[in-house]
Amino acid sequence: MGNDEDIAMLLTDRKFQSKLKAWTSYNERQKENIYKAYNLSSKEFNKLFYLWNTLDFHVPERPSSEIESQLNHTLFKILAKDKKRRLFDTRFYKYFARIAAILIFPIIFYAGYLQLKTSNFNSSDQFVSVSSQLGTITELVLPDGSIAHLNAGSTISYPKTFSGRNRSVSISGEVYFEVVKNEAKPMLIDAGDLVVKVYGTSFNVNSFSDQNYTEVALVDGNISLLLKEGKIEGKDEYKIIPGQTATYNNQRKNLKVETGQIAYQTAWKDGVILFRNTHFQDVVSRLSRRFNVNIILKDQSLANISMDATFHNESLDEILRLLAISTPFHFYYAPVKQLPNGSFQKAKLFIEKK
């Protein structure tokens, strides 16, 4: 695949569009034949598939004969004003009309494609961006009525209206979704390397930028996982079922799927802090976001100690004291300093091994 013009021409080609629409129904041999027919790699095709699902451009259903007739009429009308051109070969008009009919819609598409490509995703007149501050949990309603619960330190961005072929959403952090069912217009959630395709269901996505994985836990319904580049476990879409948790390692590029209780992944939205075989380093990260405190693990020998615990309304100090009963550590706060503008530094807490 060469340049942006090639992309525009392919995505407005009716035959190629039919391949995109039926893509998930093809077997591997059929897909390989399509790659060869269009001289595309699987990586390039997946990019086109994702772009086609995101954009809402299409070729109008007007017959080419009608377009050709109108263009011919316009050209003859213009040229009739100049009698010196009466001998102009009318075959040129038809040829020009056919070329225009072929090119006009890719040109229109290309203009729209470039506009989307260069647009600012956070533009206030088109998109909404909401962040849940550290120490808080935020709930909001999306334009289609779907509900998103944002864990502390998380951000979600989405258009003011879902007017395209899909309901496109981008997140950073951890979000629990309750998506309104609409099989004709799936929701596509951009979570870093991973894209979650949803028709209507409840699930949790954990994709903080400071961790090397993206985790998706499905409560009910069904969802598909896609990669922006390449296949996931040899598939274009990897489906998971209720009760499963899928963890994609962004560095190793592999997927791990587990079946069982998913309360651990979803308890936070109800204010519950739940640790199940959780490394102390992850415990520290979650508590830091939850209580908006900069917690520093001074002794890294504690980092990989596993912990199991459930907390409901306990304070940070109470949680740490209870954890310290079974783990040899103690903690202390650094003195809080006042800044020149009158505000105070974020609280800083140190954890050391006893």
From TrEMBL:
<dbReference type="GO" id="GO:0016989">
    <property type="term" value="F:sigma factor antagonist activity"/>
</dbReference>
<dbReference type="Pfam" id="PF04773">
    <property type="entry name" value="FecR"/>
</dbReference>
<feature type="domain" description="FecR protein">
    <location>
        <begin position="132"/>
        <end position="223"/>
    </location>
</feature>
<dbReference type="InterPro" id="IPR006860">
    <property type="entry name" value="FecR"/>
</dbReference>
<keyword id="KW-1133">Transmembrane helix</keyword>
<dbReference type="InterPro" id="IPR012373">
    <property type="entry name" value="Ferrdict_sens_TM"/>
</dbReference>
<protein>
    <submittedName>
        <fullName>FecR family protein</fullName>
    </submittedName>
</protein>
<feature type="transmembrane region" description="Helical">
    <location>
        <begin position="95"/>
        <end position="116"/>
    </location>
</feature>
<dbReference type="Pfam" id="PF16344">
    <property type="entry name" value="FecR_C"/>
</dbReference>
<keyword id="KW-0812">Transmembrane</keyword>
<dbReference type="InterPro" id="IPR032508">
    <property type="entry name" value="FecR_C"/>
</dbReference>
<keyword id="KW-0472">Membrane</keyword>
<feature type="domain" description="Protein FecR C-terminal">
    <location>
        <begin position="273"/>
        <end position="331"/>
    </location>
</feature>
